[in-house]
Amino acid sequence: MNDTLLSTVTLEEGLHWLDLIGVLAFAMSGALLGVRKRFDLFGVLVLGCVTAVGGGAIRDTLTGQTPPLFLRDESYLWAALFGAALGFGFGERLARIERTMSFFDTAGLALFAASGAIGAINFGLGPLGVIFAGMLSGVGGGIIRDLIANEVPEIMYRRDNLYATAAAAGAGVVWLLYPHTTTFRAQLGGALMVVALRWISRRGWVNLPVRRLHQSEQK
């Protein structure tokens, strides 16, 4: 019994740390956009924190967990502030490295999509509900970030456009794996699916079709 309790505690700690890594990654992604937009320190911190906790807040609202987790456990806010501060302090250097920015963005997307799917499963949602909640958990913070920064949300037009689709696929993998393995492995499998699809998309191998209007249709 003690072994079972110990493994449960270890699992919960592992999932908690995965969530914190996702928060840190998204906070840095949001902060880097703020630096590029010439926001001041306060603006960068706000943008980073909103990006980091926005998806989780949407996830918790959809699954009936109120107040959102980041208000019940301030370690998420501290992680968001730390990530945003790193983005502000080293933003000029990091912004020159496109792969670094993409890494943080993909890491946050993967971890949040997977954790959002776990929360939806625990709430008893069906497969479509799990996929929808996981997708919004992954992309919600980025949508809020872009709207605050007066940008069209990137998920609507980015060239490597397996983004929201990758988050939805990752959530679907979590739903498929959950009955057959541990929660940690299901979440890890979903996160790896997101990373794999983002990598494939960025290499230009697979992307969603774009409808191109003829000149006569645009009038």
Automatic annotation (TrEMBL):
Record flagged with keyword Electron transport: no
The way it spans or sits in the membrane comes to: Multi-pass membrane protein
- UniProt lineage: Bacteria, Thermotogati, Deinococcota, Deinococci, Deinococcales
Q: Which Pfam families match?
A: Gly_transporter
Which InterPro entries does this chain map to? Gly_transporter (IPR005115)
Q: What is the organism of origin for this protein?
A: Deinococcus xinjiangensis
Q: Where is it chiefly localized? A: membrane
Provide the protein's localization: Cell membrane
Q: Any idea what this protein is called?
A: UPF0126 inner membrane protein YadS
UniProt family annotation: Belongs to the UPF0126 family.
Q: Which UniProt keywords apply?
A: Cell membrane, Membrane, Transmembrane, Transmembrane helix
What residues does the Glycine transporter domain cover? 17-90, 103-178
